[in-house]
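quick one: threonylcarbamoyladenylate bound model?
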Amino acid sequence: MTLILKIDPRKPDLKKIEQAAACLLEGNLVAFPTETVYGLGANAFNRKAVERVFFAKGRPFQDPLIVHIALLRMLHEVTQHIPDAAQSLIERCWPGPLTLILPRHPRIPAEVSAGLNTVAVRMPSHPIALALIESAGVPVAAPSANRFGYTSPTSAAHVLADLDGRIDLLIDGGMPIVGVESTVLDLTQSVPIILRPGGVTQEQLIKILDSEVLCGDQSKRDQIAAMPSPGMLTRHYAPHATLILIESENSVNACRQLVIEAKLRLDWGKRVGLLVVDEEAQFFEKLDVRIEKIGSTHNLAQIANRLYSAIRTLDEEQVDFILARSFGTNGLGLAILDRLRRAASTIINIE
Ligand code: TXA
Ligand code: MG
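yep, here:
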């Protein structure tokens, strides 16, 4: 059975936090909110507990987990080598949505990192996540709290929909602020490489490091074998409905194409859902489709924040197709594009 603890993120109830921390230390699984998405936590030092995370999610053991810390001194239990580049990123971006790939400390079981010599580590900024990890006093290994391959959860209800009965405790702490997962940055190569774009943008990283930052283009659909980040499967974060992504630099053309694609599928007698920004809603008014508004084109943070929730809502309504367009590659646009590509069955590129 999954116990649910409701905790107010503005003033986390210490008794409840301690209860959840004790649960972690007993080797149990605790889902908790972070500022990006909900995580499914286990004591990172406890091999058995870490294995249970993989079973609960149905996640392959080749897909390594992120270790979460609450205090800088915990970093020394996760890695023995902190490169200079990491220092400045830690100062500027932690706590926050940036995961660093560093050499793995021998205390961290190999299972956490799928047998790699490296480890992914981040300090989340969510007050409940920080309080929980600090109270437990151990680093917490936590992937996103969804069934493997499905959209990451941005509410306690999403976690329950995927994992009810498969985990011991769920902290309901409301909606995350960022809404897409952390940026994963590999610092073990000669040049820093973004393995997964996320809450901290490539532009921000370049500015902080004052150096080149490469973007491992994992969104290319034909590169599964060559992926440097194990488990970063191309089709991931995927809804049950078939997602069609229109990629275009021209938003008017993209909307026209969305109308064409929607009409075609309505003619087939299919149920169609659309992810739509406020400014473009008028394009689709006359169509018999389900519309999920994901914010303003001028506010990529809002789009990122609502993206997963909107996809889940359309899935719950059992549409056959979800149609969406891309929002460029600047700033958070890259993370949004990456997630939409991974969720998509078909990508249509137009002018
Ligand atoms: O925002 C987030 O990062 C959320 C919250 C809960 O913190 N967590 C999350 O975890 O998204 P997960 O497991 O869904 O994604 C972790 C990603 C995977 O793509 C994995 O391949 C990569 O990080 N990763 C983990 N350890 C790695 C390593 N040692 N080397 C390369 N990639 C690694
Ligand atoms: Mg995940």
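The pocket of threonylcarbamoyladenylate (ligand 1) is lined by residues 34, 36-37, 39, 63-66, 97, 99, 101, 113, 116, 118-120, 124, 142-144, 181-182, 184, 195-196, 229-232 (CB under 6 Å).
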